[in-house]
């Protein structure tokens, strides 16, 4: 009885240590505002393609299609303007001299 209890406690302790022990986390590349905007632009374009497909398949009334299409196009235009502004700002900023 005590041997089984000791084995269970040891297994429990090992499992808890494995789960809660501090470990090195894999961190991806740092996201910039421009990369976020590009990802969002891609998502909006994909939504526009899906919307167009569903409208052509007859799954959506034209009034809803036009409304959604207009809002997605407005969002895409806003994103493109923001991306262009950030790229122009980055291009005009002086480069740091490397030692």
**What's the alpha carbon Rg, rounded to whole Å?**
26 Å
| Uncertain residue ranges | none
Q: How much β-strand is present in the residues? A: under 5%
Please describe the biggest sheet, giving its number of strands, its sense, and whether it closes into a barrel.
none
Shape: elongated
Order of helices and strands: HHH
Overall average pLDDT: 89
| Secondary structure tally, helices | 3
Helical percentage: over 70%
The overall strand count is 0
Class based on secondary structure composition and strand pairing: mainly alpha
Cα distance spanning the termini: 70 Å
Protein described:
Helices cover 75% and strands 0% of the residues. With 99 residues, the chain is mainly α. α2 runs antiparallel to α3. It is elongated, with a radius of gyration of 26 Å. The model has no long low-confidence stretch (mean pLDDT 89).
Question: Descriptors for this entry?
Answer:
mainly alpha
Kindly summarize this structure in a few lines.
The chain is 75% helix and 0% strand. The chain has helices at residues 2-20, 33-56, 62-92.
How is the secondary structure organized here?
Layout: H1 2-20, H2 33-56, H3 62-92
């Amino acid at each position: 009885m005590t041997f089984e209890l000791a084995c269970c406690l040891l297994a429990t302790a090992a499992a808890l240590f494995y789960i809660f022990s501090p470990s090195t986390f894999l961190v991806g590349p740092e996201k910039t505002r421009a990369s976020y905007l590009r990802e969002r632009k891609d998502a909006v374009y994909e939504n526009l393609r899906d919307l167009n497909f569903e409208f052509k398949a007859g799954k959506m009334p034209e009034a809803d299609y036009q409304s959604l299409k207009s809002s997605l196009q407005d969002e895409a235009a806003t994103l493109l303007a923001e991306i262009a502004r950030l790229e122009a700002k980055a291009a005009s900023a002086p480069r740091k001299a490397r030692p």
